[in-house]
C-alpha cells in the first residue's frame, strides 16, 4: 500500500493571524506530543512518497519546537521517512536545527504595511525575512512560496528584491484558493488533495488541508487502510462531478484555477 502524499499537522497553532487562513480561529488548538509524533511517523513514513510536515499549523511556533525537529531528524536520517518537506511562516525567535529534504517558507505579504495588517507575526516582515535568509544559509534547500490575493496582488518584484543574492527558490501561486469557503460556481475537477491524507494532531484524518475546523474527518491513522478506502470513495464521487460536504463551496477544484510559476 502506497499513497502519494501525507500532510502531517503536528499542531493547530501557527503564531500568525493571516487574512487568507482561518486556522488562528480554531478552538481548541491541539498539539501532538513528541512521543506521539514518533508513533505517527512510523505509521505514515512507510506508506507515502512525500511527507509534508505543517499544513495549517506550524510546530516551529511552539516553545519546545526543537524536540519535534529532533524526532523528525532521527527518523529522516535513519532513512525511515520518504522525501520530507517542512513548511513554516519563519516567525520563530531562536535558530532551529532542522533536517528535511526541503524547507518551505510561506510569505503571503511582501511589504511591512501589508505584512503587519494581514499576517500579524510579532517582529514583522524584517524578522521573517531575516529568518528565511538564515534558513537558506544553514540548510541550503529552501523555497519561498507566495500566494497572490487582494492583500498581495503583485509580489514578484518585491520578492526578488527581498531575496536578492539569497540561495532560495521562489514560487508564486495564482490559484484561486478559496480558504474561506465562499459559494462559487465553475466546472469542477478532482481535487489534488485527495491524492493523499491530511493527519491531525490527534491522529484523525481529514479530507482537506484547508478544512480548518475539521468538518471532513473520515478516518484515523490507527486504521489507515480503511481511511484510504473512504478517501477513494470520495475521489470517485469527484470524478463523477459530485462534490459533497466541505467541497460543495470550495473553488480550489475548479478548472479555471490559475497556475503556479517560479520567478527564481
What is the topology?
Elements: E1 3-8, H1 34-44, E2 48-53, H2 65-77, E3 83-88, E4 102-106, H3 112-118, H4 124-139, E5 142-147, H5 156-162, E6 169-173, E7 196-199, E8 204-206, E9 217-220, H6 224-239, E10 260-262
Helix pairs in contact: 1-2
Count of alpha/pi helices? 6
List the strand order in the largest sheet: 9-8-7-1-2-3-4-5-6-10
CATH architectural group: Alpha-Beta Barrel
How many domains is the backbone divided into? 1
What is the average of the pLDDT values?
89
Regarding CATH, which class?
A: Alpha Beta
Fraction of residues in H or I helices: 25-40%
Q: Spans with pLDDT under 50 lasting ≥5 residues?
A: none
> Number of DSSP strands?
10
Q: End-to-end span in angstroms?
A: 36 Å
In CATH terms, the superfamily is: Aldolase class I
The portion of residues forming beta strands comes to: 15-25%
Helix/strand class: alpha/beta
- The shape is globular
Largest sheet: 10 strands, mixed
CATH topology: TIM Barrel
Q: What Rg, in angstroms, do the CA atoms define?
A: 18 Å
Order of helices and strands: EHEHEEHHEHEEEEHE
